């Protein structure tokens, strides 16, 4: 699990190393309402919420920084990705099942905060999946900017498995077991 998180963060780092500051902060209207930088900041906010929540045993993804250097500077985002990477590298499998309290707003009509019990493992799965989802959005923004990204950037792990399994040549029935 930790290696998969490091792979996800490495994808973000590679994107940040290759993007210009202009492309990172550009909002391509009317097709998009936010920049690649806003998506990256949102990803980082979730990882930082988990880091803070792990130390306090109370995770709250609704608390976000919004705006700021991470949203406008690939270099600032790289520094935060490095901090998150260091934190993940220091975790151990023993940390996975430690109980955490997760609070989240669940309504758009009125403030309604629900609190549930979760674990670090569950929340790592969530923030990783959440990052990949936003990488897919960044990929679309980059495509609109005529930028080239690695084909696997923003590709869900289950989709990658599907593509690998379906790109292999078919075996004769006698060999399928």
TrEMBL record:
Pfam family, one: DinB_2
Matches recorded under InterPro entries: DinB-like, DinB/YfiT-like
Gene3D superfamilies per record: dinb family like domain
Signal peptide from the UniProt entry: none
All copies of domain DinB-like, residue ranges: 14-138
Chain ranges passing through the membrane: none
Full protein name: DinB family protein
Organism: Pseudoalteromonas distincta
